Amino acid sequence: MTTPRRTPPSPPPPTGRRRRPVDRVRWWTYALLTLAAVVCLFPLYWMFVVATTDSATATRMPPEVVPGGNFLHLAELVLTTVPFLKSVANSVIVAGTIGVGHAVLCALAGFAFAKLAFRGRDVLFLVVVLTMTVPTQLAIIPQYLIISELGWVDTLQALIVPGLASAFGIFWMRQHLATTLSDELMQAARIDGANSWQIFWRIAFPIVRPAAFVLGLFGYVTAWNDFLWPFVVLKSPDTYTVQIAIKALQNNFSVDLGLAMSGSFLATLPLIVLFVLVGRRMVSGILDGAFKG
């Protein structure tokens, strides 16, 4: 005797209310994004306007919003007043080395804190996190004494070595590795005969490469914009970074805003070019860390 086959229940009748598409973007979203972009880009545009005119433009009311034709003259004056190109090269060396150091060393330390078991790991990580609460200005005097004992005053390594890693970078990479690298994958690699360094370089670092790339960019921009520590430790014009070169454009009694803004705009151009080249990858790296974390 065969049993009758049950028919599946029919779907409920559609209601009169239509569901709105999830991916639909309202017009005011674009308006807010456009307004935010204008607010962020206006200081850069205003800097270019002052750099193409003179110091009176910055204090003129109503302010001028049309660039002038004096930029090439002021740029030539910047290049002849201070060794600006040499300073840009020094900043590229310092910021590039610090950026690579942030990407590799912070990932290595984060891997150790996240996946390696050793005595005092949690206490040491707590100390690293607590250092983020200490103002950087408090470390200038002991840091200068150490640099002076090593004979690194007025050298680029005095800027590079203290900035190769940061507590924020170690914390960020540790949290990222703790959520993206599984213990089962590490155990399988150890069964295959891989040591800790091989696991980090061949497995862990490729997994967190987008986040490490973003961290390296943050370290690059921070080192490029740093002023206080280079101002303390650098003495001769041959070792100036770009921020110290801009400071050298000013005298002790007055400031030529047109000249200073021209130097600032020239110093900003490399960062703009860098963002144009790697901006999409930086955003994807940030989103990758946000979704995986």
UniProtKB/TrEMBL annotation:
Coiled coil: none annotated. It is a multi-pass membrane protein. The keyword Transport applies. SUPFAM superfamilies: MetI-like. Residues 1-15 have a biased composition (Pro residues). The chain crosses the membrane at residues 27-48, 88-111, 123-146, 152-172, 199-221, 257-278. InterPro entries: MetI-like (IPR000515), MetI-like_sf (IPR035906). Residues 88-278 form the ABC transmembrane type-1 domain. It comes from the Bacteria. Keywords: Cell membrane, Membrane, Transmembrane, Transmembrane helix, Transport. Residues 1-20 are annotated as: Disordered. The keyword Membrane applies. It is found in: Cell membrane. Belongs to the binding-protein-dependent transport system permease family. PANTHER family: ABC TRANSPORTER PERMEASE PROTEIN MG189-RELATED, ABC TRANSPORTER PERMEASE PROTEIN MG189-RELATED-RELATED. This is Carbohydrate ABC transporter permease. It comes from Streptomyces millisiae.
